[in-house]
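Supplementary Methods, section 5.1.

A reviewer requested that the exact input to the structure prediction be made available. We therefore reproduce it here, unchanged from the version used in the analyses.
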Amino acid sequence: MPHLDIDLLRTFVAIAENHTLGRAAHRVGRTQAALSMQVKKLEYLLDLPLLNRTGRGVELTLHGERLLVHARAILRLHDAALADITGAGLAGTLRFGCPDDYAAAFLPHILRSFASRHPQVFVEVFCAPTPRLEERLRSHDLDLALVSASDAGQSASWLRREPLVWVGNRDDEAAQREPLQLALSDPDTPDHRAACRELEAAGRSYRIAYASGSMSGLLAVVRSGQAIAVLTQCAVPADLRILPPGSVLPRLPDVGLVVRFGLQSPPTLVAEFAHHLQALLPAL
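The structure derived from this sequence is encoded token-by-token as follows.
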């Protein structure tokens, strides 16, 4: 029976989660050549192809998908055992905030992969619109938060760029109504401000039919066909449709995802979670 080396499995998981050798190499602190050699060694040990190289990066084969499930479980148990026996590794509670749409799109993967590396860390999650998260950061009720930034001049600090899009019911023509009926988040959020600004610039009449910081409430209104909403593209549910810009609806800007901290000099645990976000988000 071949021996599944922990180091090889950790490299394989990093490649699978980052989709390119370059990003995975940055995450584990090794060269792309070293990672490529480790994958070849793992494929040789198992006598199975695990990755397909494509023009956009790497994709898992069917065998690779199956191995990934086991590799994550093995690494989680390995790291938990090591941390428990030696007392090493990070431990403690982390208070993390993010908007609902980012939570739906990214949070399961972020939390699962961080827990596999730091099983003794408990992450408390608070979901709210960006302005409410920034208030909690200023009052030190959160350690860090993933928030939306709308200033394109600061795009160099963005971890990821997300388009804002109009979203409507698949079977309704709410976008054709006059005035346009909108379901928007809090008035000081980037999506609310962008929608009003672009509609006013285009000369399109509108009415805020529903305003709430709750994403589930906004989606319920859209599903009812009573209004359309503005979401980040990553958060659009499969049962709703993106309404293309044109003569009826103006084009919306992009927003950036950035990490902000409650303290100017964050402690090691907070800095490690921020590094984890920086490594994962561009690839998700």
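The mean pLDDT is 88. These observations are discussed further in the main text.
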